[in-house]
UniProtKB/TrEMBL annotation:
BP GO annotations: protein transport
Role of this protein: Involved in inositol deacylation of GPI-anchored proteins which plays important roles in the quality control and ER-associated degradation of GPI-anchored proteins.
PANTHER family: LECITHIN-CHOLESTEROL ACYLTRANSFERASE-RELATED
Residue intervals of the GPI inositol-deacylase PGAP1-like alpha/beta domain: 62-156
Name of the featured protein: GPI inositol-deacylase
Gene Ontology molecular function terms on file: hydrolase activity, acting on ester bonds
Pfam families from the UniProt entry: PGAP1
Family: Belongs to the GPI inositol-deacylase family.
Subcellular location: Endoplasmic reticulum membrane
EC code(s) of this entry: 3.1.-.-
CC annotations in GO: endoplasmic reticulum membrane
Source species of the chain: Gigaspora rosea
Keyword annotations of the record: Endoplasmic reticulum, Hydrolase, Membrane, Protein transport, Transport
């Protein structure tokens, strides 16, 4: 079924449209790797948005509003949003209704609608200090007396410094990366007790959602947030739990991690998940529903 309405792709935290020199397209990295082109080949008009990479929900929604009014005047549109982009879109729909374009659907993909326990943990100064207290000069690949499959961030304080060397640089960098104006908008308290209560669904918009879940390997930068979220909310993709991803009509859970969903990095050997095919299926579903 050919797509009926324009599809607007909305990125999440630390997202972008493309990076690299425009004069050398082959050196560019696209947030939606191959997805925009595949949707266009299917027959859809596609708009790839770019909002502040670490902006708060309100600031990002304001930019989305301007993009819709400028580029899609007179059109009904489908919003497809990854991660925090789904919260930006919900704010846009509820608080910044567009006059020149009409949002008909919002499909969120691994969006933390109910917040993230990892963001709760990251906002805890005591937890952060546990990580930055390890000042080790080099990597030590020997990790004696530790069962790596059972490592939890809640037990890091008891891990000997000599066994923590390889884990520390990755974890510290990841935690520091999330120390942005946006992270406070992603805690469970904010999302559940403030954002969702003040941002009700628009009854004229259809809301769909997908979640993701996988067993994140120890060598992945997502391993530590994966463990924190797993202990609190169960199955997750390394940043967002299946539970938190559910909003509106839940369409199902795909087997992949949070970063696989945008097809930027294809490093997972043996994975059956095809992100391009996934988005084509989403677009086809929307078309069969009349959108």
């Amino acid at each position: 079924v050919l797509p009926r309405l324009p599809i607007v792709l909305c990125h999440g935290l630390f997202g972008f449209d493309k990076l690299g020199p425009s004069s050398i397209p082959y050196l560019q990295i696209h947030y939606w790797g191959g997805i925009e082109e595949a949707l266009q080949k299917l027959g859809a008009k596609v708009v790839v948005t770019k909002v502040p990479r670490t902006g708060c929900i309100r600031a990002c929604a304001q930019v989305l509003h301007q993009i819709l009014e400028t580029n899609l005047s007179g059109s009904n549109v489908n919003l497809l949003a990854h991660s925090m982009g789904g919260l930006d879109c919900r704010y846009l729909i509820t608080h910044l209704p567009t006059e020149k374009s009409i949002v008909r659907t919002l499909t969120t993909i691994a969006t933390p609608h109910h917040g993230s326990p990892f963001m709760d943990w990251s906002s805890n100064k005591k937890s952060f200090n546990i990580l930055i207290s390890f000042n080790l000069p080099n990597f030590n690949l020997s990790l004696p007396n530790i069962n790596l499959s059972n490592i939890s961030l809640y037990s890091l304080a008891s891990i000997p410094q000599t066994t923590y060397t390889i884990l520390h640089p990755i974890t510290r960098a990841l935690i520091q990366a999330f120390d942005t104006p946006a992270y406070s908008n992603l805690t469970t308290d904010y999302c559940v007790n403030y954002f969702s209560k003040s941002t009700p669904n628009n009854p004229s918009v259809a809301y769909y959602s997908y979640g993701a879940s996988t067993n994140v390997p120890i060598w992945s930068p997502l391993y530590f947030p994966y463990q924190i979220i797993k202990e609190k909310e169960g199955p997750n993709d390394g940043l967002v739990s299946v539970k938190s991803a559910q909003w509106g009509k839940y369409m199902g859970t795909v087997e992949c991690d949070h970063w696989d969903l945008t097809n930027r990095w294809r490093l997972k050997i043996g994975s059956s998940f095809d992100p391009v095919e996934f988005y084509l299926n989403v677009a086809t579903f929307l078309a069969t529903e009349g959108y």
